[in-house]
Amino acid sequence: MADPFRRTAAFTASVLLVGVPASLGQGSGAQASDSPRPAAPSTSYRPAQSEFSLTVSPTRLAIGPADLAKVAEILVVNRGDKAVTVNVLKRNFTGGSDGALIFQQQAPYSASAWVTVTPSTFTVAPGAAQTVSATVKIPAAPEPGDHQVALVFLVPAGKTTANVRINRGIGAPVYITVPGPTDNTAELSDLHAPAFMMWGHTEVTAKVHNAGTVHRDFRNASPLTVKSAGHTSAFPDFTVMRGATRDISAVWNPPLLCICHPTVSLVNANGAIDTVTVRVIVFPLHLLGIGIIAGLAIWLGARWWRRRYRAAVATAATQLKPIVGGGSA
């Protein structure tokens, strides 16, 4: 009889490298510039000297109303030293607080049934590439705004005698903006920073919630920033998809001494400005301590020198007395 533990342990673990923060572009997802057309396939690509090295370009697609009838393309490049067979899967998803894609079969605003990919299965030789085409057909009377699906480029695990087999892949989100009235409103909250610090840089964290109907990008020429006392620090590039909330953080470098109020602001398409701020006291206690110690050392040194000087003067005066008052009769 087979060992039940061994039978249970023989499973396939699918690891999908889909922690791709929805980024690229700026403004609403209706901008076609978010999805640059991939470069024309080259006859060969320099290998990465690795058994597995698969890349896709662009890393996401943002298909606006003007591009719904166009064919989008993604270039898949195999820089590994072995041929790989790739299966292109469609997965509905929601956005995690860290920007990762969380696959959910019943995710809201799903568009997996709208997209057709060609080819859906292919083999790429080492140093070669394959162009995958994606076409969109929206249903009748869909809700305006963003609908999304992830294209997962999955390389199944090869044959092995091991109990655990790992599938490797890359997830590329596709944002499809349905024509109609849209709203890009985003809201800031929970700005946090240390209430007191002595020196150096510190981490500032906040939450950004997308209360609109299209994704919001904060990157390139218009990143989200934290400002205070003439110092500005940018948050790393990120995207907040429709209905999602992102946790963000930035490194802020305050001045040496201040009562600062780091502030984060964003402007929505309707002109409304959302702002959050927090108070941080920066006081270099270590420098104050060094100053006190140095001052004390100087005072003690001066005191010691004055006592030595007075003692030397008294000794000299004592030695001069016989000379001044002495002599023969």
UniProtKB/TrEMBL annotation:
Residues 27-51 are annotated as: Disordered. Keywords: Membrane, Transmembrane, Transmembrane helix. GO terms for biological process: carbohydrate metabolic process. The chain crosses the membrane at residues 280-300. It comes from the Bacteria. InterPro entries: Ig-like_fold. Residues 41-51 have a biased composition (Polar residues). This is P pilus assembly chaperone PapD. It comes from Kribbella kalugense. The lineage of its organism: Bacteria, Bacillati, Actinomycetota, Actinomycetes, Propionibacteriales.
